[in-house]
Design goal:
- This protein is α+β, with helices and mostly antiparallel strands and 668 residues long.
- The chain has a domain of 137 residues: Butyryl-CoA Dehydrogenase, subunit A, domain 2, CATH 2.40.110.10.
- Helix 2 runs parallel beside helix 20, helix 7 runs antiparallel to helix 8 and helix 14 packs parallel to helix 17.
- The chain is globular and about 90 Å long.
- The N and C termini lie far apart (62 Å).
Length: 668
Amino acid sequence: MSHTRLSYKPNEDIERERKRCTFKSLELTHLLDGAPEKTRERRERERLFLSDPELMDDVPAEYLSHKEKYELGVKKACKLFKKVSQLRDQGGDVEIFTQMLSGMLGSAILKDGNPFAVHYVMFVPTIMGQGTPEQQAVWIGRAWNCEIIGTYAQTELGHGTFIRGLETTAHYDPKREEFILNSPTLTSYKWWPGGLGQTANYAVVVAQLYTQGVRRGIHPFIVQLRDEETHKPMPGIKIGEIGTKLGMNATNNGYLGFENVRIPRENMLMKNAQVLEDGTYVKSPSDKLTYGTMVFVRVVIVQDVASYLAKAVTIAVRYSAVRRQSELKPGEPEPQIMDYRTQQYKLFPNIAACFAMRFAARRLWNIYNNVTSDLEEGDLDRLPELHAISCCLKAVCSSDAATAIETCRLACGGHGYMTCSNLPATYGLVTAACTYEGENTVLLLQTARFLMKSWQQAASGIKLTPTVEYLHPSHRSSGVWDRSVEGIIRAHEDVAAGKIRLAAGNMASRIKSGTSPEDAWNMTSIELAQCAEAHCRCLLASTFLDTLKSLEISDSLRSVLTHLCELYAVYWLLQKSGDFLRFSAVTAQDIDHAQRWLEQLLAAVRPDAVGVVDGFDICDEVLSSALGVYDGRVYERLFEEAAKSPLNKDPVNQSFHQYLKPFLKSNM
């Protein structure tokens, strides 16, 4: 049951949907939150923040200028995190920060991006993960208490995902025990870091380290960007904002250049590699130890995109319950558009995808914590697997969510194009994730490197890590699909294994014919990216099923989630039917059966669709959509939003007298 106060009598159609629901939405809410008390705590936080007049918008953000959006974002972020800190000091747990940074609540208050996000998600975690205990003692307290605001300056104008190609330099001067930072080219300017434009006064800067005349590779440095009192740029710092974007325009993405900027030796983060006073370089025990921050961010991204998709399907499903259009049968009332099978096909697999992504994010988080614990003990064995999982999940989930949200927008017809539907803004936020923190194709190719090594290990009889055990010959399927979800997952494994085998074989044959390994990799890269995607889809489907089997829930909720799990598996079987026919035991007759199975599942999900999105428990203030309101009074809300347009304040706009009337009277 939503906890939003209704201001209209609920729409009859949406009320009827809730009465026909076969399970209790509140049970699903408790499951997703973790426990009934977690739901209660989350709702209390939402009420506390969403009822605060200082955090409300006087004017819809779409009517503000770019400058006004940023200034409002900073104003609200300052008030928001001050309130968060007060709650923390009163005994609140760290979960409240998670809600603000990667949860529904933060995105409801800071609708167009959070200028402090990178401070909490990357600046602080990087110092914690790569700083020595002494460096943490100097910086973490100040950063955590927001005495300073930081960002993470890695990406440059000319280089993003290829970190080794970064051009910013840091030369060590042993006489003064300082590093000298420079931006030797235009393309070496840092470009994109959130909060860098005008918000942050410090940054973790990733630069090419030079000591004793030798290039040592990329390393992280803490650099002061602005004076702590005046906020003016420090000497040698060239800094500004990069301009408007498709979305996230309050995030304050910026550019940064250096001209002989000196920082103390102690400002290089030295938990791993070190530079001694005389310039002696002490190499890190493993170059993989720097993966931690990036993996953490990718965990957050998978959680984020699942939340954005949950918003979109909630909006589209509720609207589809209210909107009536056309005639199925002549002379009968116009049906709800959710009764059209094509509409169900657009929406219901994307409801299922919300759960697949959410469960995968939870699994990734657990693996991350386990591997991080192993790293503290010096065990690096599972780090490559974690890196591979985080890369492909970030790539596939962000891409799927962007496609799904656009599908939801189109499913709402013309009204979905309205800003007040919140679907355009939601799409703008989620599609950004397809390129930040690693461009998706590059991330799939990083996963493919792990898969190629795993394939070689399987061929040599070496024990494989859990997520690639299916590559071992002993795990091959029997060659028959039993038309079950488990069977589809085994077929997914066959598809992934087949694609990996083919890519490995094609690459090997190219190398054998005299092609260099690097060129062979590039020539095979389409297949390599595809095998990484196939591996990820196997991971998503199997995690959904494994999680469902482990849940202690009522029979009615289990039935609904089982339908969604089956729908997710069958949908992707049909989407990738060519691969299944090519690499698994699935036959053309099986595809025909799967199509009928899909249609049966759409019909089975139909009575519970509104109940499921109600179970996401996204209150109206967080949903921020005229089309997705809990009470279903869509048309009333659309008129309310139209009234907020500044163009409706005057019955005659001044442009009529200035331009239009003279034009009309000009006797052309």
